């Protein structure tokens, strides 16, 4: 006798996997952002300047709070 997996169970599994992947991606993005900030500060400190991540585009252009940023030494 063959057992068949219910479509509801498959959908539930997909939701759980997608949710878990989203949570992991969120935490890794936060870690990556802090790591980029550290690298920027180290890079600029080697040149005797203060480093800070600055937005590439103004908020009005992207409409997002989390805008792309680049390292800037002052």
Topology of this structure?
Blueprint (H helix, E strand, L loop, with lengths): L6 H39 L5 E5 L3 H4 L6 E5 L1
Antiparallel strand pairs: 1-2
Unreliable spans are none
- What is the H/E string? HEHE
Please tally the β strands and state the result: 2
User: How large is the count of helical segments?
Assistant: 2
Q: Helix share of residues? A: 55-70%
Average pLDDT works out at 83
Beta-strand fraction estimate: 5-15%
Question: What spatial order of strands do you see in the largest sheet?
Answer: 1-2
Question: Alpha-carbon distance between the termini?
Answer: 72 Å
Biased composition (Basic and acidic residues): 64-74
Region (Disordered): 55-74
Q: Care to give the gist of this entry?
A:
The chain is an alpha+beta fold.
Describe the structure in your own words.
By secondary structure, this protein is α+β, with helices and mostly antiparallel strands. The protein has helices at residues 7-45, 59-62; strands at residues 51-55, 69-73. It has a two-stranded antiparallel ribbon with strand order 1-2. The relative contact order is 0.12.
Summary tags:
74 residues, alpha+beta, two-stranded antiparallel ribbon, 2 helices, 58% helix, 14% strand, elongated
């Amino acid at each position: 006798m063959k057992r068949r997996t219910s479509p509801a169970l498959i959908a539930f599994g997909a939701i759980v996997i997608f949710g878990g992947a989203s949570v992991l991606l969120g935490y890794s993005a936060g870690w990556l952002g802090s790591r980029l900030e550290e690298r920027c500060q180290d890079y600029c400190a080697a040149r005797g300047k203060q480093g800070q991540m600055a937005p590439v585009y103004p908020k009005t252009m992207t409409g997002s709070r989390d805008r792309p940023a680049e390292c800037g030494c002052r």
